[in-house]
Amino acid sequence: MEFLIWPGAALSLTGVFGLVYCIVLATRAKRAGGTDEEIRAKLQKVVALNLGSLLLSALGLMLVVVGIFLG
Question: What is the DSSP string of 21-68?
Fold first, then answer.
């Protein structure tokens, strides 16, 4: 079931890159300063992207595990 492992690894890696991007966005938002309300609004957008990246990474890891079990 190698055809499940490689796409799963690619999906998982894409999710990890998304998480790194979230870290960069959150750091930029905090360094930019502003009022608490402005920073909170920016970070709320980052939270949505963060959850999506986590979901993508988890789905990729599930594909890898299923591919290993069936292979």
Answer: HHHHHHHHHHHH---HHHHHHHHHHHHHHHHHHHHHHHHHHHHHHHHH
Judged on CB neighbours under 10 Å (0-12, 13-18, 19+), 51 is exposed
- Amino acid type, 15: G
Q: Is the pTM of this model over 0.85?
A: yes
Taking CA atoms, 21 is separated from 2, 16, 35, 67, 71, in Å, by: 29, 9, 23, 28, 33
5, amino acid identity: I
pLDDT tens digits, residue range 11-59? 999 999 999 999 999 999 999 988 899 999 999 999 999 999 999 999 9
Tell which residue, 59, 71, 57, has the closest CA to residue 21. Answer: 57
How far apart CA 28 and CA 24 sit, in angstroms, is 6
